[in-house]
């Protein structure tokens, strides 16, 4: 049982705050160590699919979170803007600003008794039996008990538990940007072009439009998604897209660029009293919009395992066993999706788009049913 147990969470992002909240709701005494000096409005849009939304509902946050209920995903041709395939969203898909989700989780965690320590950067995390030794950026050390590392793909705990894990540059970069609302329908539109694609959807009741644009290229780019870039570079990369997209990109004042790297799912998720969660365990490419959803799933499953198993070692073993294969499947599916969006002109692209148009007309649920294993999975049951 978690009642009375002391838990430390490294990282105040989506996964860390969700895990802290889920554990605190079960009676644990939880502290979050966040390296930033404040939990501020950073990032842009997220798609919370049904498998992630059920966790937010179980945490009691669904009503409080500002979101746009998505009604459809539409795949469109880059040059003419014509629709290739439409996928109605009958289950609860929501478009959410990352900052709104973080704030909702933060407020709920504090209300549940979670203590958040800001400006605490963890440089090393070393399990030692029932304890975890943390080396902080200021040179000090701290000893903690059960510790959850939810501090992203550059997690020191991930490096310690998986020292031979190697990532590689995919040959793709991504831009993200926000522009004022364009009176868009509550839908995600994916404009597919040769070696490139662009996704757009509304946030905050249509007040702003979220843009994610991906390009294949040889030039390496840093993996940090806070790297600012000149909007002119984004416009130049998509200059042959339809006027609707060119007009949208013309309004961008600030954009950020990051390189897309493929990381393996961690082979080791826990040791002693230290466990990985979210991107620290399974960084993913953004082509299925599952990073935040997987972190939410992890948080619920970990809290449930800790609550159900008196021995923390058994709890962490069960947590990893429940999550490894599913997250690996999602990571692989996300990698495959990039190829589908970036087909170049030729017989294969013509055949693929013709098949999608036929499916939309005669079997509209055939494509969506392929992902029932992903979206209909409910970790809260």
Secondary-structure blueprint:
Blueprint: E1 6-10, H1 14-24, E2 29-34, E3 45-48, H2 50-58, E4 68-69, E5 72-77, E6 83-88, E7 94-97, H3 98-111, E8 115-118, E9 122-128, E10 131-136, E11 141-144, E12 146-149, H4 156-161, E13 168-180, E14 187-193, E15 196-203, E16 208-216, E17 228-229, H5 231-237, H6 243-250, E18 255-262, E19 270-271, E20 274-276, H7 291-308, H8 312-341, H9 347-362, H10 365-369, H11 372-375
Describe this structure in words.
An eight-stranded mixed sheet has the order 6-5-14-15-16-13-18-17. Strands 8-2-1-12-20-19 form a six-stranded mixed sheet. The chain has a three-stranded antiparallel sheet with strand order 3-7-4. The model has no long low-confidence stretch (mean pLDDT 91). It is an alpha+beta fold and 381 residues long. Helix 1 links the parallel strand 1 (6-10) and strand 2 (29-34). The longest helix has 30 residues, at 312-341. It is built from eleven helices and 20 strands. The protein has helices spanning 14-24, 50-58, 98-111, 156-161, 231-237, 243-250, 291-308, 312-341, 347-362, 365-369, 372-375; strands spanning 6-10, 29-34, 45-48, 68-69, 72-77, 83-88, 94-97, 115-118, 122-128, 131-136, 141-144, 146-149, 168-180, 187-193, 196-203, 208-216, 228-229, 255-262, 270-271, 274-276. The protein is 34% helix and 29% strand.
């Amino acid at each position: 049982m978690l009642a009375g147990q002391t838990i430390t969470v490294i990282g105040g992002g989506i996964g860390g705050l969700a895990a802290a909240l889920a554990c605190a709701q079960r009676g644990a005494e939880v502290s979050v160590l966040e390296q930033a000096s404040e939990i501020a409005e950073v990032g842009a849009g997220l798609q919370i699919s049904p498998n992630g939304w059920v966790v937010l509902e179980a945490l009691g946050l669904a009503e409080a979170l500002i979101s746009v209920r998505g009604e459809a995903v539409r795949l469109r041709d880059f040059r003419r803007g014509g629709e290739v395939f439409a996928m109605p969203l009958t289950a609860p898909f929501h478009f959410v600003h990352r900052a709104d989700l973080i704030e909702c989780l933060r407020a709920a965690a504090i209300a549940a008794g979670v203590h958040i320590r800001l400006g605490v950067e963890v440089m090393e995390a070393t399990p030692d039996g029932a304890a975890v030794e943390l080396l902080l950026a200021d040179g000090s050390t701290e000893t903690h008990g059960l510790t959850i590392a939810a501090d992203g793909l550059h997690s020191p705990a991930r490096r310690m538990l998986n020292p031979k894990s190697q990532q590689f540059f995919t040959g793709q970069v991504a831009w993200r940007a926000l522009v004022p609302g364009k009176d868009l329908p509550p839908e995600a539109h994916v404009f597919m072009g040769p070696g490139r694609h662009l996704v757009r959807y509304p946030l905050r009741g249509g007040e702003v439009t979220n843009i994610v644009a991906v390009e294949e290229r040889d030039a390496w780019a840093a993996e940090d998604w806070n790297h600012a870039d000149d909007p002119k570079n984004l416009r130049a990369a998509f200059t042959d897209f339809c006027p609707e997209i060119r007009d949208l990109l013309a309004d961008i004042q600030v954009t950020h660029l990051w390189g897309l790297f493929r990381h393996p799912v961690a082979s080791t998720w826990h040791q002693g009293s230290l466990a990985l969660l979210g991107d620290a365990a399974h960084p993913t490419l953004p082509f299925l919009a599952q990073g935040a959803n997987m972190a939410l799933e992890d948080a619920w499953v970990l809290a449930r395992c800790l609550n159900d198993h008196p021995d923390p070692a058994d709890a962490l073993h069960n947590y990893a066993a429940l999550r490894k294969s599913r997250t690996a499947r999602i990571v692989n599916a996300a990698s495959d999706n990039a190829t589908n969006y970036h087909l170049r002109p030729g017989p294969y692209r013509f055949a693929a788009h013709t098949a999608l148009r036929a499916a939309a007309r005669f079997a509209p649920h055939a494509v969506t049913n392929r992902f029932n294993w992903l979206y209909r999975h409910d970790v809260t049951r």
